[in-house]
UniProtKB/TrEMBL annotation:
GO function terms (MF aspect): rRNA (uridine-C5-)-methyltransferase activity
Entry annotation: catalytic residues: 438
TRAM domain ranges (all copies): 28-86
GO biological process: rRNA base methylation
Residue ranges of the region described as Disordered: 1-29
PROSITE patterns: SAM_MT_RNA_M5U, TRAM, TRMA_1
Protein's name in the database: tRNA (Uracil-5-)-methyltransferase related enzyme
Residues reported to bind S-adenosyl-L-methionine: 313, 342, 363, 411
Amino acid sequence: MANYDSRNHSNQYHQNNRRPRQEEPSVQVEVGQRFPLTIKRMGINGEGIGYYKRMAVFIPGALTGEEVVAEVTSVAQRFLRAKIHRIRLASPHRVDPRDSYADEVGGFELEHLAYPEQLKFKRDIVSQSLERYQPVGFKHFDLRPTLGMADPYGYRNKAQFQVRRNADGQIEAGLYAERSHDLVDLPTCSVQMPVVMTVMRAVVAMLQDLDMPIYDEEQGSGIVKTLVVRAAANTNDVQLVFITNSQKLPRKRELLERIAKELPQVTSVMQNVNPGKTSLVWGEETKHLAGAEAITEKLDGLSFKLSARAFLQLNPAQMEVLYAEAKKALDLQPGETVVDAYSGIGTIGLSLADVAEEVRGMDVIPEAVDDANANAEANGITNAHYEVGTAEDLLPKWIMTGFHPDAIVVDPPRTGLDDTLIDTILAVRPPKLVYVSCNPSTLAKDLVALVHDYHVDYIQSVDMMPQTARCEAVVKLTRRQ
Ligand code: SAH
């Protein structure tokens, strides 16, 4: 499933234009070595970048314009990683992060940067990505200022925390430290919706009280692996999911009784079974434990049913901004047909159904597609239909059967568009194309092919994830004559 949480493992380092030329001797540096460094710019993961003897140095937590003493943490052939040993000259935009662990776990890369500067950074990331892939005409693209939040905290509707019992027998719940498997317990988290953290910590306390068997990765023993809490901002529904190592959930009755009594805000309790050692958080099987099987979120006057595994953007307030931008960019006229590719639970397509003649969408997750069709029905929408499958498979099939969309909106995961899909789009050439991207690198790469047939009218970045380096963008493309 698309994972909006995964870190960006883009190969930016290898494509960095400023790397030293091959014939230059590589610099002799050792781990632990310190040197003064001026931060020239910030890279796509929010880290500061400076140059030591013309070698790029990536240094998390450092801001543009700062002068630091860097301490080398790893040496690669063409770049170095370092940490801040000392800041000699701080940026005027540096602020104190609210979360004490902000520099330890992923997802808080920019919490030390004043918010207006975060917004500028995100637009700059789009610009840097274009610079790297150079789609024809990129210098003239209209990059609009990033749309941000009035209050860039407490926005996140979902927490997915690993649980572990520490050496003292205490149950901890949180995220892994970066580039490691060390769990960092998160008693508070400034970007989460308060209700999410209240439920999360209360459940952790219950697990402790009931002495529940917690999964132990090394031994392969124990049961509870992960806790997921998702809240619907506009209906107050809250879903709690226990991801477990086995079908069995010991003390289930006591646990559910306590949840019902002490956490009345929880409207749905589910269990997802994910046995054994695996890098995937979610397993295939989801069981109903208590309350409703799904929660409902309301967006732009429409209701959306959310089952446990269905993807939903993490920031409900900015979701409305993002979808309004997608709608504006599509500029659908009555009578036009539209494809909602990578549709999730149908959020984008269903919001277009009042104008469109027909909406067709697809997603690879069957539950999400079921939700999308159920959402159409629940909202009295009869001209939208969703199918299970990949965009690259289904779009050509639909076209073979005579369906020629006037508009396509794509909202792919971080990997971007499949080449086959790009080829299909370029063969079918719908007049209107909107690309909703959650990864400027793959966006820039995909634009290289798309600009042959499409003009980029503008790129509107939207900040869906304040305090992180993540950047979303809506691109309006119009078919060339
Ligand atoms: N438009 C939705 C979902 C976007 S997330 C929203 O705004 O909420 C991207 C979605 O693409 C995920 O739901 C994921 O399951 C789906 N997906 C991943 N690969 C796909 C593919 N090859 N074809 C179609 N959908 C895919």
